[in-house]
Amino acid sequence: MASKVSLKAGKGKVVKKSAAADEDEGRAAVAAKFVKEWSTWAMKKAKVITHYGFIPMVIIIGMNSDPKPSLSQLLSPV
Amino acid sequence: MAAPAPPSLAVASAPPAAAEPQKVDYLNLPCPIPYEEISREALMSLKPELFEGMRFDFSKGLNQNFSLSHSVMMGPTEVPSQSSETIKIPTAHYEFGANFIDPKLMLFGRVLTDGRVNARLKCDLTDDLTLKANAQLTNEPHMSHGMFNFDYKGSDYRSQFQLGNGGLLGANYIQSVTPSLSLGGEVFWAGQHRKSGIGYAARYNTDKMVATGQVASTGMVALSYVQKISEKVSLASDFMYNYLSRDVTASVGYDYILRQCRLRGKIDSSGVVSSFLEERFNMGLNFILSAEIDHRKKDYKFGFGLTVGE
Question: How far apart are CA B212 and CA B225, in angstroms?
Answer without folding.
Answer: 7
